[in-house]
Fold:
Amino acid sequence: MDSEIQLISDDEGLAVIGDPTAVERFLVSEGLPSTDLGLQRLGSVLSAGAATAQAGSEIAANSGRWVKLTKESAQLVQKHGLRKNPKSGLSTGALKGSHGQIKGFAEFAKGPGALLTNPAVLAGAAGIMAQLAMQQAMNEITDYLATIDEKVDDVLRAHKDAVLADMIGVDFVIEEAMTIREQVGRVSEVTWSKVQATTMTIARTQAYTLRQLDALAEKTERAAKIGDLAKTVKEAESKVEEWLAMLARCFQLQDAIAVLELDRILDASPDELDRHRLALRAARNNRLELISRSTERLMARMDVAAGTANTKVLLHPTTAREVVDSSNQVANTVVVFHGRLGIERGRQSLDARRWVDAATEVRDKALDAGADGVDAARRLGGDTFDRAKSATGGLSSRIAERARRIRRDADGDEED
Structure:
C-alpha cells in the first residue's frame, strides 16, 4: 500500500501532512520534534461544493505536524527538493513510498484529493504555520524575560511616564484575548475589537524605548575623558538590560496581536489570508530591522569605548578595567537579546563581544604583571593578538593594531 505525505515550508517552519502513522514515522525517522498543526481549523476556509467537501474529508482523515525550521530541518527541505513559489514564498511537495516507508523523492502533489492543490487550504495551512512560528518566538521571549528577573515589571513600576504605564493595561487585554482564543478556538469580533485598540500603545512604547537606547549610545559617544566614559558606560550597563527587556515584551505582544489577527482573517475573510500573512511577515521584519539598527548603533559605541579604554590601560588601569568590563556586559546582553528575537545580523554583536573579551584578556595580563606592566604588554607578543584577529576578523584587527601601538610606544620610552 502506498503512503504519501505532503510538505510545506515557509522559511520559518515545516508542515508535514498525511496519514497519521506515515507522518509520525517520517518525523521519527528524521529525528524531528514537532507540534500539532491544528489542521482541523482549516474547515472554516472551505465553502460549499463537491470539491471542497472532498477536501474537507481529506482534512479529517489526515494529520498535520509543525516543525520549527532549524539547521537540521532546513537541510531536510533541501534534501527532498521542495519547490518554492516566489509569489507565496512557500516551498511545497510530496513524498511517496510503499509499505508505509516514506523514502521517495519529492514531487508536487497532483491528484484531485491532494490537499496542496486547494489554494484555500494551502493558504490556511500557511497562516496556521505563521501563527505557530510566532507563538514559538513568544515562548522564547517569555523564557528570556524569566532569566532576567522580570525586568519589564521593574521598568513599569519604576516609571510614571504614561507611555509605559499604559502598557500594563495592554498586557492584560492581550493575554486575556489569547486565553479566550485558546478556550474557544477562534477570535470573535468582540474579542478582536478589544485588542485593536492596543496596537498604538505598543508602537509608542517601542519608539520610546528605542529612543532611550539611542540616547545611551549618544551619551557614550560624547564622553571625552576616560573618567566620564567609565561613568557613562556603567550607566549603560545598568539600563540596557531593562530597555531591551521592554523591547522584547513589545515584540512579544505584537506577535500575539498578529496571531489573533490571522485567526480573525481566517474566520472573516479567508480569501485575504495569504496576502495578509505576507504583509504581517513584512511588517515583522521591518520591526526587527529597526530594533537591529538601534542595538547595533549601541554596540558600535561600546566597541569604541572598549577600544579607548584599551589604549589607556597602562595609564588608567582601574578605570580602563571598568570601561571594558561594562562594555563586555552590554555586549553579552545584546547578543542574548538578538538571539531571542532571532535577529540574524547578531553576528556583528557577537564579534563585538569576542572583541571586548580579547581586550579583557590583554588588559588582565598586563595588570597581573603589576609594576612590570609595560614589559608585560610588550611580551604578550603576537600569539594573543593573532588569536584575537582570527576570532573576530575586522573588529579584532583594530584591537591588535592598538596593542601593537602600545608596544611600540613602550619600546620607544625604554630607548629614551
Observations:
- Residues 99-113, 345-356, 369-403 have pLDDT under 50 and may be disordered.
- The chain has two domains: 2-131, 148-415.
- The radius of gyration is 27 Å.
